[in-house]
Design a protein that fits this description.
Blueprint lengths: L11 E12 L10 E7 L6 H9 L5 E5 L11 E6 L5
Antiparallel strand pairs: 1-2, 1-4, 2-3
Length: 87
């Protein structure tokens, strides 16, 4: 299915929460790669979260990270921006 180009130019900001981290090796080794699972925020208890609950895509995001400096904290919220990119 081809999506009209006008629909591909909209940037989308989603709010995700990091739910888990899995170490792909020794968790005491700072160079061990990690897999993070993040899910969209579905919560109407605050005005901002209520807006994201209505507008954020559903699903789960899994990130595999090899860079020791790139870390996500379990329980922390993160904004994820989706913008069109050239192939």
């Amino acid at each position: 299915m081809t999506v009209p180009r006008r629909y591909l130019t909209m940037a989308i900001r989603a709010k995700f929460r990091c739910n888990s981290v899995t170490f792909n090796g020794d968790p005491n080794d700072e160079n061990t790669s990690r897999s993070y699972k993040l899910t969209p925020v579905y919560d109407t208890s605050t005005p901002e979260n209520a807006r994201f609950t209505k507008a954020t895509p559903w699903g789960e995001l899994t990130l595999n990270v090899d860079n020791p400096a790139a870390r996500f904290d379990v329980g922390q919220f993160y904004y994820v921006d989706f913008t069109p990119a050239e192939g």
